[in-house]
Structure formats: structure tokens, C-alpha cells
Amino acid sequence: MSAWETVVGLEVHVELSTATKMWCGCPTTFGDAPNTNVCPVCSGQPGALPVPNARAVHDATLLGLALGGTIAPRCRFHRKNYFYPDLAKNYQISQYDVPLVSDGVLEVEVERDGELVLETVRIERLHMEEDTGKSLHLGATGRLHGADRSAIDYNRSGVPLLEIVSRPDVRDPETAQAYLRELQAIVRTLGVSDARMEEGSIRCDANVSVRRPGEPLGTRCEIKNLNSVRSLGRAIAHEAARQIAVLEDGGSIVMETRHWDEDAGVTRTLRRKETVTDYRYFPDPDLVEVTTSPRRVAEVRAELPELPAAARARLVAAGVPRAQAATVLGGGMLALLDAAVAAGAPAPAAANWLAGEVTGWLAAEGVALADAGLTGTHVAELVAMVEEGAVSATQAKQVLAGVLEDRGAAGPRAVAEARGLSQLRDEGELARVVAEVVAANPDAVAAVRDGNDRAIGALVGQVMRATGGSADPRRTNELLRAAIGS
Amino acid sequence: MSADPALTRLGAAALGAAVGAGEVTAREVLEAHLDAIAARDGVVADGDVWHARDAADLGPDDLHAFLVVTAARARDAADAVDRRRAAGEALGPLAGVPLALKDVLTMRGAPTTCGSRMLEGWVPPYDATVTERLAAAGIVVLGKTNMDEFAMGSSTENSAYGPTRNPWDPDRVPGGSSGGSAAAVAGCLAPLGVGTDTGGSIRQPAAFTGLVGGKPTYGAVSRYGLVAFASSLDQAGPFARDVTDAALLHAVMAGPDPRDATSDPTDPADVVAALGRGVEGLRVGVVEELEEAGCEPGVRAVFLAAVAALEAAGATVERVSLPHAGYGLPAYYLVAPAEASSNLARFDGVRYGRRVDAATAEAMNAATRGEGFGPEVRRRIMIGTHALSSGYVDAYYLQAARVRTLIARDFATAFDRVDVLISPTAPGVAFRIGAVADPLAMYRNDVATVPASLAGVPAVSVPIGTADDGAGSGPLPVGLQIMAPLRADDRCYRVARAVEAVVGFDPDPAAHGAGVRR
Which residues pair with A94 in a beta bridge? Predict the structure, then answer.
């Protein structure tokens, strides 16, 4: 019997980072005190009316075009009716029969057997809607079950939301992860959302089914509570394995919504979908059609910046390794890299710093790139200092850390000077240290002589330590080999 | 403060002119009307805010037009007008004129109930655009008036706070759903009233109480702050005892509003300037389908006399068909409840108004709605929910929406031939409180008014005389409905003014030997 094939469709929600909400003038700030960013409209007061946020429509159009989609000349908003306390009007304004954007496509790079391959995921639709409030369950557990009482924060109510629905084109967890990362990179490049999964400004649900290749689609389960790109991959892998086990056991899959339990690493039934919820969609009579003329489409299209795929191709062509290009783009560092190149740095060297040391430092210190104060000139200067031998590689890392610690207040050269970091250039001094190290490590020296090339590394390390990192590793290596006579 | 009761007999234009000329203060005008309300409406006239008595404690002749009278706030508003005049500021034509506001429009700080127990205790945190525009014109809001619960009804009997009585006969309904505002103006408790009209809720009460009442073109008056019944149909509009007053109030209310996406962004028609133009050479179409429509003989006779008078005044009269008008009522009673079922979903006990506590949110929701809504509201929510349900939406809601399109086309076609369309406003005169128990019989009151609502076109009801119901009612008012093309509200008022001039109707029930129980 042939193997199983996993089939995944993804539903991604992106919160737009417009200054104001979808239907009113309230701010969209994340993390403010509960119910401080509310008004009659977004708290669903009787008589209040929604007015569309033109910026949100623009941003949705921009993203639609970035995804290669078709913009509907006319579309409207529908009401999706269901009762839930965090839904201020007990209906969500969404789109139904005609979404703003249809038929897009996203090409993603997936690593398979060490090779990067391109996978195409078609996008069925992108539509505009509004976010809900948040229920807070007050009690010991913080969950609904066992709570003493519940409260609702409507700060998020009415924040513009885009729903992006893919076709079931994804066949493995890696492609799903790449799709989500690529979407994140695109919305960040466009500046329409900060797309932070941990803050919920980008959220992803996965529809997972399995089948024998060539057979019709199997019964799908919708997986919710995917809080990171990593959980998306884990959950798909687990869910596919679960379904295969059920089917191979002679069982059948029930269409349902399942909750991903990150700690336990399993999905659990959340609710069955035997009875399809009837949302009683109908056109929202409080709103009029959204019209987008071909001229408007052209205007918005003209605003499109270089998209991640194009930028990636450009970087690779400039000699940047693919993995580093991906890190630079994913970290929102393309502009910084371009600035560094403009300031004279070769792209591969600059990318190496950004994807390596800079990314590592930001992650370790929990500092956002925007707050680090790092400029393209800084990066270019650092690259030049290493190139000209002013500092050793080890020292250069210390210099970079210094620049970042001061949030860019001083450039690399100033930091190097202030901290007394410069490469050891006295050949006699270096030769003396090398001789000491050779004398003190007869075993390693013997190993090198026996052809163990790796042993030389340990000796270089000793020299570096003895010189406080100021020796040039390449020259040290040369001197060591000369001293050992290998 | 001394108040001259004769001030309550004056119309809005006359009062506004007198205040503007310094012949009387806005405060004196207000006090005369507050006195009339205290004497006749059944409110506890005490303190800053006067509340209506419980239905069981009302006297047999108490009109019960007001649910709440915002006395202190009205006095502040009147005094502000007087101060502005004293400072030499130019005042608008309605500055210092009192007004009765239907309790479906929000006014910051004043309770808004929509005639429902559901909203008991809710004090809106914002002003409706209409309320803002009234204040900007110097109009003095007396208080909030009684209505059918959430504007669902044609008699004001569906108010959770008890029915309003008709000043023409206290045993009869004033029509609805804007019956409180209509009774206030007809009973001279206010010279002006604001109502809302979804399927006839201004026009039918205007007809039942001998008033002029107008439903503007959909989109002419902002719906911001109008608690929605059916969003695609709701429009606020004026009540007055003559056409000029109604037109002046319409002019204050109409205009673009960026807070309402369905608001017409263009400048509204100038309804006041058109008033004196007469009907010479105007083509008037009598709608065949609405002329017959189950009219009482008395109503029909008065209507035909008015048509003849219009012809005598120089209009060309012909019969015109709106072929799909007969489907108006069923289409309306699907579209409106469908929208209402969604609009009223927000009343769930979570954020405002009544809450019946229960163990879970879902149970609280169900208990609150079960207790807070009256029977007619529950009926329409169920009809509307069903009409939108999967498997039925095509046959009901979408089919009704298609009928609506056909009716709008009927109007467009008819307006190629004639300038305005006319019909009786309601098939009968005001009926006795409690006499129409069957909901479907009640819905038939709206047969002539719903087509204009569905098409969005403007319509004005103007009184044309009195008729007996054939069962000894004595003289009760009859209204004529004038419908015009979209945005041609001026044409409605122009024809209404001409009808008024040739008919010479006196809005005082006493002048007709009415105003008493029969």
C-alpha cells in the first residue's frame, strides 16, 4: 500500500497596524489598560454606526496585490451573526460572497534533503473583517472552567483584520511554516502589520487531512491555538500522524475543531462540526459597497516595495548565502543591509554580520532592531575594520556589542578606541607568544605533526587567549605551522 | 414663571419668529409647554427629570406621550437661546422652539429605552447626529416620547410602558410606532416632534393624529444615534401641525454625516424654498394598487375629494400603476425583521441595559432576552432569524430583497410619467386601543407606506379632512401620502403645502367637535 499524503490549508489572520480601528477612530494600541480604547461604535452601543477605515482598505488592497491577487471592482461587507460575549454587536462585520481579493499565490522556499526548493501555495481569498474583544476569566486558573467571573476587554474590538485563506496546496509541516514566515515577511515589508504571533497580530489555523496520493481529499480537522511557527509545524506533524493512525486502525476521521496543546504536544477535540454553525450571513445594511477602480488598483500597485522573494533573489545574486538572506529578510534587516552596502560594505560580509552576530545579540538581549540604533554606516565600518586588520574577528564582535550596548551612540571605530581594542601587529611579540604556546603543548604539537589538522585549532585558541583576542588568527596559524614545521 | 397657555397653540415658525423678535422668551415658550405636559400627560412633574407614571397609575385622559421630560436640561437650553438673543446673536427660525424627541434617538445623559424593558436604566454616552443638529438650531428638546418597543408596531400599544392615547379620542391609538411624538404635537404639548419611520412609523401616526409627518429620502437624515430597527429602511423625520413647520424641521435634520456610511454626501434638497410654488402644471399620479388597498369608505371619500381639489388647483391627475406594490407588505415583513434579528442581537445583558444573571454567558443571554423583549419584538426576531437561516434565506430574505428591487424599479418607471405619486396614508382612521389583536391585521396598516420605504423614496403625509370609521367613531383625521423621486423631498413638501392650502385642515380636534371619548 502506498504512503499517506498530508494535505493542509491555512487560514491566517493578520491584524493591520493602522492607527485607528476598522469602523471608528479609536486607537489600536496593544497592551493598554482594559477598555480604555473604546467608543460607542466598537463597544456596540445602541445606535452607533460603522464607517470603514480607508487606510485599512488600502492596506488590504496592497497586500492583495503583493500576493498577486485580483482586486474586486466592487465588494461589500456582510454580517456574520453569532452570539459571543466578546463580540460587541453579536455579529462580526466580515466579507462573504465577494472578498476584496481573490486568486493570489505565494511561492515559498522549503529546505528538503539539504536542498532549497520552491513550493507554490495558491491563495483562495483575502477578505477584510474586524477583530473581537478579549474575554478574561478571573479566578484561580485563568480559564473559563472554574472561573469566578468573566470580564471583557473591548480594546481589540474592531481592530482591522485580514483573513487570508490558502487552497489545500500544502503537503508538509515545513511548507506550512515557510508559508507563514513568508506572509510575515511580506506584511512587514509592506508595513501593514507587525505580524507578531506572540501578540496575536498574526494568527494561523491549519486545516489538516490525510489521503492516499491521488485519492479525493480526506475529512479535515481544523487545528487552533497555534502560537508560533514552530507549533504550526509540530501540530501538523502530530495531527497527520494521529489521523493516519486512526485510519490504519480501521477508524474514520470526524470533522471537528481541535486544540493544539503545546506542552503535551498533542491536539484535542475542541468542538465537533456535525452541526454546521449557521451564521446567517447577509449584507450589512449599515455599509455601502467598496469600489476599487482599475486606476486605484494601479495607484496602489505603484506603491508596492521590493517584495521578500525579489529581495532574496537579489541578495543571493550578490553572493549572500540563502540561509543568511532569509534571516536578514525575516528579521526586517533588508534596509539596514542595503544601507551598509551603500556605505561601502560587500553584501556577503554585511549579511554575515546581520544574520549572525546582530541577530544573536538582539535575541539574547531582547532588544528590537528599531531600538538598537544600528546603522548601515556602523556595519560598513565594522566590515572595513576587519578587512583592513584593524581589529581581529574576536575583537570585532566585542566592538559590535559595544555599539549595540550604547544603542548606536558611538560608531565601531570610536568604540574600539574607547575600549582599547586593536589587532596585535607586532610580529616579534606574536612570534614570542607562539613559541611559548608550542613549548607548553607538546601533545598538541605532536598531533599536528602526525597530520591531525584539527589540533592546530586548539593551539590558535591558546594564542588568542594569551593575546586577549588581539592576534590575527590567520597570521597566528601561519606562524604556528612554521614553528611546528608541519 | 408665568406662562401663557395660548403659546402652546402657536406653530413652530410663529414661535421661532416671536422668540427671534424678542416678543416672548424661549423660557416662556418652554414653561407654557411644560405646564401643558404637567397638566395632561401623566408625568410626575417634579425635579430635574420628570418621569411618566407607571401605566397602571395613569389617568384615563392622560396622553402618556412622554416617557421622560428632561425639564432642567430644557430650561438650560431655553435660557441659552435667550442669552444668545440678548447678546445680539442671529438665531435660526426654530431657535427656542420646543420639540418632542422619540425615545429611539440618543441624547447624552438622558435615559433611552426604545419603549423596551430591555434598555431600562441605559443612559447613552453620546448624542445622535439628529440630536446634535436640533441643539445647533436652538431647538429645545422637552423629553423622550413613547413608542412601540424598538419601533415595532403601528399603534404604540407595543410599548413596555403602556400605550399612548390619541388627542382626538383618548380611547384610540395615535398610530405608531412614533405615537408618542405624534400625540405630543397633536395634543399641543409640543409644536414639533421627531419620529422615525421604517415602514410608515411617522406617516401613519401623522395621519391618525391630523399632523404633517415626513419620511425623508433614505440617507438624507443621519442614522447615527438612531437605535436601529431595520437599518436599510430607518429614517428620522418631522412631525408638525402644518407643512411649513414640518419643512423647517426637515431642513434642520437633513444633511451629510461622515458618521453614517449610508448618509447621502450631497447637499439635501431645499424643502423650505419650494413651499410656495403650488401645483400648477404638476403631474400627480394616483397609485392604483394603493388607492383600493382595503380602504374604509370614509377614508376613500376624503381621499377622492382631496384628489379633486388638487386637480382644481391646477395639477394634472392620472392613475399610475406600481405593479409590485402589492408585494410590498410581505417583502417588508421579511426584510425588516431579518435586519432587526441582527440589529437587536447586541441586547444580551453583557454591556448595558437589563441583565438577568445566570450560571453561564449563554444562559444569561437567553434569560435576559426572554425577559427584556416584549412579544412583538420576540416574534419579529424569530421571523427574521428564520428568514436568514441557511436553507431558507433564498426563499425568504433574498426573495424579498429581489421584490424590493422590483418595487424600486416600479417607482422609477412611474416617475418617468409623473412628478409625484399619491395615496391614502393609511387604510383607516385611528382604531380603539386593544381593538386590533391580530398581528397580521396590524401589519396591514402599513400597506400604503411600505412601498416608499422599500424604494427609499421620500414621502410626506398631510391631513386632508376627517372621516368616521363607519362604526360611530365621529370625525377622525385622514392623511394623504405624497411620494417623490429619490432626493426630491422638496417636491413632497411643495405638494403637501398646496394640498394644505386647498383643503384648509384645522389640526385642533376641538374645531371638529373631536377630542373626546366616543
Answer: A78
- Phi (first) and psi of residue A77, to 5 degrees: -100, 140
- What average pLDDT score do residues B463-492 get? 97
Distance to chain A for B231, nearest Cα, Å: 6
Say if residues B52 and B161 touch (Cβ distance below 8 Å): yes
Strand B66-69 and strand B50-52: pairing? antiparallel
In angstroms, the CA A136 to CA A450 distance is 69
Per-residue pLDDT of B437-462, as tens digits, reads 999 999 999 999 999 999 999 999 99
* Joined grid coordinates for residue B381: 426576531
Min Cα separation A155/chain B (Å): 14
CB atoms closer than 10 angstroms to residue B87: 7
Q: At what angle do helices A54-66 and A173-190 cross, to 10 degrees?
A: 130
pLDDT in tens, A167-181: 999 999 999 999 999
Nearest CA among B71, B94, B73, B96 for reference residue B86: B96
Q: Which of residues 451-480 of A touch B (CB under 8 A)?
A: none
ipTM of the predicted structure? Answer: 0.96
- The mean pLDDT value for B236-245 works out to 98
Q: Is A46 in Cβ contact with B346 (below 8 Å)?
A: yes
For range B25-31, the mean pLDDT: 98
Handedness of CA B224, B226, B230, B235 (dihedral sign): negative
The C-alpha atoms of residue A86 and residue A93 are separated, in whole angstroms, by: 14
In b/e form, how buried is each residue of A132-166, taking b as 16+ CB within 10 angstroms?
bbeeebeeeeeeeeebeebebbbbbbbbbbbbbbb
Other beta carbons within 10 Å of B89: 11
Q: Does A290 touch chain B (CB under 8 A)?
A: no
Class of domain A427-484: mainly alpha
Per-residue pLDDT, A265: 92
Band of residue B42 on the pLDDT scale cut at 50, 70, 90: very high
- Tell me the average confidence (pLDDT) per consecutive run of 10 residues in chain A, 486 residues long: 88 97 96 95 98 98 98 98 95 98 95 87 98 86 72 96 98 96 92 91 96 93 94 97 96 94 92 77 97 98 94 94 88 92 95 95 91 94 88 86 92 87 75 86 85 83 82 82 79
Identified catalytic residue from B154, B159, B201, B222: B201
Burial of B408 (0-12, 13-18, 19+ CB in 10 A): middle
Closest CA to A155 of A59, A309, A31, A261: A31
Which residues share a beta bridge with A417?
A: none
Weakest mean pLDDT among B34-38, B269-273, B442-446: B442-446
Superfamily of domain B5-253: Amidase signature (AS) domain (3.90.1300.10)
The DSSP-derived string for A374-421 is: --HHHHHHHHHHHHTTSS-HHHHHHHHHHHHHTTTSS-HHHHHHHTT-
Give me the mean pLDDT over the B411-435 stretch.
97
Residue A85: list chain B partners with CB under 8 A. Answer: 348, 350, 361
φ, ψ (nearest 5 deg) of residue A118: -95, 130
Where are the domain boundaries for CATH 1.10.10.410 in chain A?
427-484
Residue A288 to residue B261, Cβ atoms within 8 A? yes
Q: Which of these, A3, A116, A132, lies nearest to A80 by C-alpha position?
A: A132
* Structural domain spans, chain B: 5-253
Does B102 qualify as catalytic in the annotation?
yes
Cell of B380: 419579529
DSSP string, A38-51: --TTTTT-TT----
Place of cell 440618543: B106
Put simply, the answer to whether B225 touches A48 (Cβ < 8 Å) is: yes
- Cβ density class B18-27: b for 16+ within 10 Å, e for less: bbbeeebbbb
Chain B residue whose CA is closest to A23: B259
